[in-house]
């Protein structure tokens, strides 16, 4: 559900004087969109790792058992780094550089996908094995 501040951000300062509207303009907006974009990319790369097996943990079936998946993830992340760190692409994608603090935040926000899927695989295997017995 969208709020008025999300649909009328161009009129933010006049319509919502109590909000800090700088988040919608300039480097703050580019930084926020870059963080969002990067978090989505990293989450999808972690989901690709999780998809190696529907029911086997990454601890049982490690990532290196599928070198094509590793190559695809490396290529995807390489292209993402090109978008972030080659200035030519900054205006095309409306992104900016990420520093080490921002990369740490990206990883902290993206990493739970791995743990959530591992827990779901454990629960699924536990109930499936009990159901089949």
Provide a compact summary of the structure.
With 133 residues, this protein is an all-alpha fold.
Provide key terms for this protein.
disordered N terminus, 68% helix, 133 residues, mainly alpha, single chain, elongated
Q: Termini, distance in Å?
A: 45 Å
As residue ranges, the low-confidence spans are 1-6
Mind describing the biggest β-sheet? none
Shape annotation:
elongated
- Using the CA coordinates, give the radius of gyration: 20 Å
Q: What is the total domain count?
A: 1
Going by helix content, strand content and strand pairing, the class is mainly alpha
Please provide the count of β strands: 0
Helical content class: 55-70%
Counted by DSSP, the helix tally is 7
Q: Look at the structure and give the mean pLDDT.
A: 81
> Could you tell me the strand content as a percent range?
under 5%
Order of helices and strands: HHHHHHH
């Amino acid at each position: 559900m969208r709020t008025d501040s999300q649909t009328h951000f161009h009129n933010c300062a006049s319509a919502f004087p109590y909000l800090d509207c700088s988040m919608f303009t300039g480097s703050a907006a580019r930084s926020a969109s870059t963080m969002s974009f990067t978090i989505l990319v990293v989450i999808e790369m972690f989901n690709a790792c999780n998809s190696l097996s529907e029911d086997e943990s990454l601890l049982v079936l490690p990532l290196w058992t599928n070198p094509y998946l590793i190559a695809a993830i490396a290529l995807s992340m390489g292209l993402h780094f090109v978008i972030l760190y080659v200035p030519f692409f900054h205006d095309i994608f409306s992104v900016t550089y990420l520093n080490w603090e921002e990369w740490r935040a990206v990883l902290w926000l993206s990493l739970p996908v791995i743990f959530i899927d591992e827990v779901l695989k454990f629960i699924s295997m536990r109930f499936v094995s009990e159901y089949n017995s």
